[in-house]
Design a protein that fits this description.
The structure is a single chain. By secondary structure, the protein is mainly beta. The chain contains one helix and seven strands. The strands form two sheets. A four-stranded antiparallel sheet has the order 3-2-5-6, with no helix packed on it. The protein has a three-stranded mixed sheet with strand order 4-1-7, with no helix packed on it. Strand 2 and strand 3 form a beta hairpin.
């Protein structure tokens, strides 16, 4: 006969009753996390590129809305665009020589967006 082994229990040894209490709806967040449009440039695994020296331009249709500079962590912030966005935007990512690397459409209703690749 095979002997049945009980699987190990991974978890807290005690119960934290404070954490188990219900959170009232008034304490839940009711708005966006980011107050300005944030874009991350990541690879296919979700790891941000070192994007120092890269720029981004945000367009609404063919009208330039704002340009911004990427930081070295793959993030760019558009200070003139409050969230949640109300219209579609197009973002173009440029290197320091002005070459376009990516062009993506950002849909309405977002506060953050990822450019993959």
């Amino acid at each position: 006969m095979a002997h049945q082994v009980k699987p190990p229990i991974f978890g807290p040894k005690t119960t934290n009753h404070y954490l188990l209490k219900r959170t009232k709806a008034s304490k839940l967040q009711s708005g966006p996390t980011f107050n300005r449009l944030t874009v991350l440039w990541v690879d296919s695994n979700g790891v941000p590129f070192n994007s120092a020296g890269f720029n981004a331009a945000l367009f609404r249709g063919s009208e330039l809305v704002q340009t911004a500079v990427f930081d070295r962590f793959g993030a760019v912030f558009f200070s003139l665009i409050p969230t949640l966005t109300t219209v579609n935007y197009t973002i173009q990512v440029y290197d320091s020589f002005g070459r376009v690397y990516r062009t993506k459409t950002i849909p309405a209703g977002v506060e953050a967006f990822s450019v993959i690749g």
